[in-house]
Amino acid sequence: MRLKSIVPGALLITIVLVAALLSYVWTPFDVATLDIRNKLQTPNQVNWLGTDHLGRDILSMLMVGARTSIAVALVAVGIGMGVGVPLGLIAAAKQSGWADELIMRGNDLVFAFPALLIAIMITAVFGAGAVNAIIAIGIFNIPVFARLTRGAALSLWTREFVLAARVAGKSGFRISVEHLLPNITNLLIVQGTIQFSLGILAEAGLSYVGLGAQPPIPSWGRMLADSQTLITLAPHLALFPGLAIVCTVLGLNLLGDGLRDWLDPRLRRER
Amino acid sequence: MLRYLYRRLGSLAATLLVASLVVFVVIEVVPGDPASYMLGLNAQPDTVAALRSELGLDQSKPARYVQWVTGMLRGDFGQSYTYRTPVADMVSDRLWISLPLALYALVLSIVIAFPAGIWAASRRGGAADTTVMGFTQLGIAIPNFWFAMLLVLFFAIKLRWFSAGGFAGWDEGFFVALKSLTLPAIALALPQAAILTRVMRSSLLDVLGEDFMRTARAKGLSRRQALLRHALRNAMIPVLTIIGLQFSFLIAGAIIIENVFFLPGLGRLIFQSIAQRDLIVVESVVMLLVFAVVVVTFIVDLAYAWVDPRLRRRS
Amino acid sequence: MAYAIGSTRDCVVSDNHSALLRLDRVSLDIHGVPILSDISLSVAAGQTLGIIGESGSGKSMTALSIMQLLPRGSQSSGSIVFDGQELSELSEEQLCDIRGSDIGMIFQEPMTALNPVKTIGDQVSESIRLHRNVSSAEVKQLTEQILERVGLPNSEYPLSRYPHELSGGQRQRVVIAIAVACKPKLLIADEPTTALDVTTQAGILDLLKTLQRDEGLALMLITHDLAVVSMMADDVVVMKSGQVVEQGSLYSVFGNPSNDYTKLLFDASALTQVARRGNKNDSATATNKAPLLEVRDLVCEYRVPRPGLLSRPTAFRAVDTVSFDIQHGESVGLVGESGCGKSTLTRALLGLMKLHSGSISLNGESVSAAQTVSRDARRQMQVVFQDPFGSFNPRHKVRRLISEPLYLLDTQATAQETNYRVSETLESVGMAASDADKFIHEFSGGQRQRIAIARALIIKPALIILDEAVSALDVSVRAQVLELLHDLANREGLAYLFISHDLSVVQRVSDRVLVMQKGKIVERGDTQTVFSNPQHPYTQQLISAAPTLRIPQSER
Predict the structure, then answer these.
(1) B218 in contact with chain C, both atoms CB, cutoff 8 A
(2) Which of A142, B145, C352, C470 is least enclosed by beta carbons within 10 angstroms?
(3) Which A residues, 132 through 191, put their C-beta within 8 Å of a C-beta on chain C?
(4) Partner B contacted by A266 (CB < 8 A)
């Protein structure tokens, strides 16, 4: 029933992805050229979504900005999964060892530091940039995946098919890869989409306060920050980047919800 | 019960300790010497040295760490490198904007989410449920600072019901001050309310499927009575977890939202300090925020024990 | 045909007593799937009706239909008359007045049937407060009385207790207290003792009987266990696939079952009463004196989280100096109730947990000396678990699932060899070779357990540990699986260690029995001797508490 949400979700994401990829080869206008005479245009036939205070085409900037958002969020999810999943598997396999302790304490620690605080500290030390945003969001993702993996793996370890594999003499590593990982892939995919969408939001927030991608690289958060002083003059500047964020995040969430229902065998059987 | 409390207290203290170490180490990595930075390029070496000893920079790192932590415990956060005033003074005024803002938003989010979640769960699959769930999808997808800008555009610039920014100050009276925090709090609360509504709903639905709900109905309770008397309290357990997590998001969110509304809170201070490389202020504010989050986590832990008697197991 | 039988028997029942509850042609669909069709039955005031059925027979849904507490998407028809009222015509409000007041209900899972965040006092008094207009002091008094009545005296079990502070049997008593607090006319008990140990079960059944006699309430007892019904019921209904296949007085149904399915159930259950099999291990022991498995002074401990910061960490001794042997080709039963340490013992034998002390040797070679069990030892010993749903990785096909133990071969089997072994083994457990290419969810519980046996057999072990291997199966399926095990033992000369809480199963399949209590083996011996002349008080208690299927000889 909820499967319906996969279609609009996938559609929204495809549009954003295509726009981002397309921007590598073509954008309606070059985002690096400033055209001050043509500044603050409202949407028209030439500049479909208007121009900003420096005369840059909003649509082109949104397309290039999508690249930044997606790259940051995707790499951050990759960091989270790459570190978190093995940690979680190890913790579950060893059952209360250093990995377990590390996850639980690391979890407490990271939840005490919202991603923004991490980004603030990194920026304070190394200066602002997109890499900081990636690291900050990535660090935040690690315990999310570690905990998820650990929990799921722990419950799988008590399952009889894992005991059977142990009776067949298989090692903890082999069992983790052969039996556990395939059974938690669905969970990881679903959580991955959720973290991806959270990453898009976090990246937008960080670049809005100037801790993310730096000019002249266009980013959605930065565009919103620039639009703020002009909000009475040109509200459309604030409108489109916001809508872009909402559509991307909404698309990812719908996709995640739909995937969860689709991948959950319990729900599938009822269908 | 007491044992549970001690354990949580211990783990929170440990978290704080490690957090302070992390903050200190990270900030210590910063290249350059604050003293020479403060005095400019043309400063005499002996002036710099004097300032270094005044700021305590000439001591060993462990000693400075201990000094910093014990100082904070006494409420002494050191001296701002830029303004040469006690950090504690700079922070205390601003704290009374950021913290109330986050709490205000938390309250709003709970006030919206509880009824909405219960309503949606009790009419599962119906029109009300679909509508509420649709709104929450949207709510989660909206970045709070963008929503804040839209609020300003509509309520402050178009309708002129609120001022577009700034803070009246608590001296102007409670409600006046509260009013200037209202738009920011709404902007902060809405996405969190959407998440909380969804958690409330799904948690309630889980509980509604439990065996003891059938027992309750077999007892002769109506659907509604069973939901209110038996399901709600059980459903609170995951909801509390989320509320605890949300506070940390709200604190972070408050820092961003303050920028939209030009509120002179900790957020403004922290960005200003980063720009001026006033690292001791950054250090202290980060620690303070971590402390606030940890305290709220502890309160949530207490609430767990109140909700779930299984955690209260005799000491 | 089912209906024809139902209606003729119906007359027999209602002739004798005036019906308190009468179901007439009740049918039920859930989301379009037929669950019940044309159920007609009646319960007389003050009498006990036993409803017998295996899983999926619709017996629980019948109960929920009476309570009018059906799941979403249910569509029902037919008439349910209780105490002169047509229940399906009542408003929800009127139904709430009847539920818990005139009809009480008890459920299968006592561990989850109580609200974990409310005290037992709250939960019991709630039903009194709901249906009786009495002062709060009286409510408290009534609550204490009723808890006392179900065997939870206030001095030991104050109203402020939470469910997690009680055992399963005690929780079930609280559920019963809730159900009977307002002195209902009808009590519906849906598998009330299935989740409980035998000794606890006996107590609960006793309590239900006493309550029924003293309060004069009608009892509708739903169970899969014929023995329980034979001890409790006046009248019997047998259900299968949502239909009533046979009904009548206990005497007529149990004394002379007319329906094929009922006969099948009886055969399957009655077999368990016959002490089993010859002494086929004599030859084996004669030729090979060295025991296959030798367990000596085995101790297994779990670390318990220290109670306080300064107190010493304590350990829970789950298996306490256990010693026994298993000979080649011998079948040994290990009986014990939940928590007696039998699962820990299984794990220890399989090399899945560290031993605290003692030794395990297989064919005279120690398998516990090293930290990891050798491949050779593992090849000799395989296991079949209880849960036919949880013991397979849902993502692998049967071929991969049952060939997993081949990993223990010193040289990895070729694909061809694997295929050959898989087909051969599948056929030996009564499955088709073509089943190897299916996923596990395509099979029923009984078939899965056959596949689990195939997985254990493929490596040709000498000993198979059967850990509650038939406990989750319906009686009719269980009989078939036990039959298969019996054949395999004869054919392959396998030794079994049969671990179960179910005395009847152990009695049927084993040559020797070990009785385990609190981590120790309290009695051991030849199966027949132990069952006919138990020495240890615990064994005596176990055997006397186990319900036995009594076929009534004449009408009472």
Answers:
(1) yes
(2) C352
(3) 159-161, 163-170, 179, 182-183
(4) no
Are B112 and B195 within one domain? yes
Do B68 and B135 lie in one domain? The reply is: no
| C 133-192: CB under 8 A from A | none
* Closest-approach residue (CA) in chain A for C458: A168
Q: What share of chain B is helix, strand, coil (3-state, %, to 5)?
A: 80, 0, 20
Q: Which domain holds residue B9?
A: 2-73
Q: Are B65 and B116 members of one domain?
A: no
- Show pLDDT as tens, one digit a residue, over chain C (556 residues): 333 333 444 444 444 447 899 999 999 998 888 999 999 999 999 899 999 988 888 888 999 999 999 888 889 999 999 998 999 889 999 999 999 999 999 988 888 899 999 999 999 999 999 999 999 999 999 999 999 999 999 888 999 999 988 988 899 999 999 999 999 999 999 999 888 888 889 999 999 999 999 988 999 999 988 889 988 999 999 999 899 999 999 888 888 888 888 888 887 776 544 334 444 444 444 445 678 899 999 998 887 665 555 556 677 888 989 999 999 989 999 998 888 888 889 888 888 888 888 888 888 777 765 556 677 778 888 999 887 777 888 888 899 998 988 888 888 888 899 999 999 999 988 899 999 998 888 888 888 999 999 999 998 899 999 998 888 888 888 888 888 888 888 888 899 999 988 888 888 888 999 999 989 999 999 988 998 899 999 999 988 888 877 766 654 4
DSSP string across C296-331: EEEEEEEEEPPSSSSSPPEEEEEEEEEEEEE-TT-E
Query: Are the C-beta atoms of residues C379 and C461 closer than 8 Å to each other?
Result: yes
Q: What domains, with CATH codes, occur in chain C?
A: 1-87+185-273 (3.40.50.300), 103-183 (no CATH), 289-545 (3.40.50.300)
Domain co-membership, B14 together with B104: no
Residues with Cβ within 8 Å of B203's Cβ and at least 6 positions away in sequence, in order, are B235, B236, B237, B238, B239
Interchain CB contact of C539 with B (< 8 Å): no
| Domains along chain A with CATH numbers | 2-16+51-270 (1.10.3720.10)
Asked whether residue B121 falls in the same domain as residue B62, the answer is no
User: Rounded to a whole number, what is the distance in Å from the CA of A256 to chain C's nearest CA?
Assistant: 21
Question: Both B164 and B295 in a single domain?
Answer: yes
Q: What angle do CA C219, C220, C226 make, to 5 degrees?
A: 110
% helix, strand, coil for chain A, step of 5 = 75, 0, 25
Contact C164 B310 (CB under 8 A): yes
Least Cα separation, residue C172 to chain B (angstroms)? 12
Does any CB of chain A come closer than 8 Å to the CB of residue B274?
yes
Nearest CA of chain B to the CA of C545: how many Å? 28
Q: Is B240 on the interface with C (CB under 8 A)?
A: no
CATH code at position B253: 1.10.3720.10
Beta-carbon separation of B220 and C93 below 8 A: no
B219 touches chain C (CB under 8 A): yes
A125 with B26: Cβ contact below 8 A:
yes
Is B237 within a domain?
yes
In the complex, which subunits touch C with 3 or more CB pairs below 8 angstroms? A, B
Tokens of A221: 């958060």
Comparing CB atoms, the residue among C378, C391, C392 nearest residue A169 is C378
How many CB pairs lie under 8 A apart between chains B and C?
Answer: 78
Cβ-Cβ contacts under 8 Å, C445 against chain A: none
Contacts 24+ apart (CB under 8 A), B296-301: B296/B244, B296/B247, B296/B248, B297/A108, B297/A111, B297/A112, B297/B12, B297/B244, B297/B247, B298/B8, B298/B9, B298/B12, B299/B244, B300/B240, B300/B241, B300/B243, B300/B244, B301/B5, B301/B8
Taking CB atoms and an 8 Å limit, are B211 and C116 in contact across chains? no
- Domain contains B42: yes
Residues B199 and B239 in one domain: yes
Maximum CA extent, chain B: 86
Q: Cβ of C305 under 8 Å from any chain B Cβ?
A: no
Residues B105, B253 within the same domain: yes
- On whether any CB of chain A is under 8 Å from the CB of B142, the answer is yes
User: What confidence score (pLDDT) does residue C367 get?
Assistant: 76
- Does residue B79 fall inside a structural domain? no
